[in-house]
Amino acid sequence: AGRLIVDLCDVDSAKFEDYAASGERLWLNAREARLLAKEEARLAVKSDATLLISDAEAALFLSRLPEPSLPNVQVISNGIDADAFNPDQVAPHPKLASSEGPHFVFTGQMDYRPNEAAAIWAIENFVPRVRERFPEATLHIVGRNPTAELEKNARVPGVRIWGEVPDVRPFLTSADCVLAPLLIARGVQNKVLEAMAMARPVLLTPEAATGIAAKDGEHWLVAPANAGVMRERFEHLVSDPRKAEHMGQAARRFVLDHHAWGATLDPFEVLVRGAAEQGEARNAA
Length: 285
Known about the structure:
- By secondary structure, the chain is an alpha/beta fold.
- The protein is 49% helix and 13% strand.
- The protein has helices spanning 12-21, 26-46, 55-64, 94-97, 113-133, 148-151, 169-174, 190-197, 206-209, 227-238, 241-258, 261-273, 275-284; strands spanning 5-9, 49-52, 73-75, 103-107, 138-142, 159-163, 177-180, 202-204, 221-222.
- The protein has a six-stranded parallel beta sheet, with helices on both faces. A three-stranded parallel beta sheet has the order 1-2-3, covered by helices on one side.
- The longest helix is centred in the first third of the chain and has 21 residues, at 26-46.
């Protein structure tokens, strides 16, 4: 009874296909992708509305459905608490503020495979290239449960693995640049929205940028997972502090306009209550 709304958030079956395509646990991930795709389609047919987190995810989901009659698929983007993630309310981390830089920060749950793979790529490829130009540059990896593979890199020059911290915001506000070099990603990356809300310039891969309609060069810097290209964009950013500051401020304004909770959740009430009921409530008010 009542309205059934399914929030898939991302097309997770496609993510497992990506894992399989990369050769990682090929049989297991291919099976998971196949079975999950069937379940996603079953839920969509049974629901009154199926929610995806971005236009790109919605289009991908619809393209994968076997049903001739398409279900009601709608987009409700992710949001951020822009009052909590406000650089005016957070002091810099004392250890970053008192040490040579530049500092770049990567946040996330570090036993989540895409985050682990991105961190290892940055340690092995990006950090050495950046330190050729900036010998004191440091990558700070901040997030719970770093894997044993990540912990092996704790002594690599220019790398600091913090693990779980009580608050990521002091790290973000201390960063000269926030890094998001994801190689596999779905939906909207919270870590990116958090950094943008903290008015920090973000350097990210196209995969990490998916689902956020920000502009390259204005709200952030997008570069492929190529150490030389990423270093060039990073150098361009840190060599012009005024441009970095302007980009960070533009990033925060973008989040306030498009990803603060008030901006993202307005359509949700209509879905939950139904359009007719919503109209009656407004008339009564």
